[in-house]
Amino acid sequence: MVLSIGSNKIRTAVFISGTGSNLKSLIKFSKTKKSPISIELIISNNSKAKGLDYAKKYNIKKKILNYKKKNLIEENLLDILKTKNINMICLAGFMKILSKNFIKNFKGKILNIHPSLLPKYKGLNAHKRVIANKEKYSGCTVHFVNARLDSGKIILQKKVKISKNETEASLAKKILVEEHKLYPKSIIKVFNL
Ligand code: GRF
What we know:
The protein has 6 helices and 7 strands; from the N terminus they run βαβαβαβαβαββα. By secondary structure, the chain is an alpha/beta fold. Strands 3-2-1-4-5-6-7 form a 7-stranded mixed sheet, covered by helices on one side. The termini are close together. The site of 5-O-phosphono-beta-D-ribofuranosylamine has 14 residues, from helix 1, strand 5 and helix 6. 5-O-phosphono-beta-D-ribofuranosylamine (GRF) binds near residues 19, 20 and 22.
């Protein structure tokens, strides 16, 4: 991605729906010297998302979206992002699908993390399907977001070995540890740092 960083960091919004452990790792990363991004806004479609607590803890602005009227929501959201001069979006456990039009407005500037070795196991319940299929490996992927679900260009992946008695929960936990390292690494890669 070619973006001029200048002396300022790239103003980034993180979109979440739940626990926000990836959000937390991104916030921590953003505060390091080597980070090209600063996190200026947290967006959630879920007012009860636990990850929203990080807004208060780290003094970051937050916005909660009411997804009942999708078009209106996205128009509103685009306005908010523009007003706050947001130049980059990191999806981190965000459970809503963004429209083609929205993505067009942030072309090449939206990243997502997915808990599988894409292109395998796109969509929901990846760990469950991986276990059911008796895979030997799974992992996580950071990729650019395009109009097709979990299909944009891959930035980085991390493979993990599936243990003998692996459960959906143990696999999720194991992969999450890797996700927290892979997302920052991928951001560094995107900006060629
Ligand atoms: C992660 O496994 C992420 O890959 C997936 O949803 C989960 C979100 O976890 N898309 P958290 O909210 O970041 O803790």
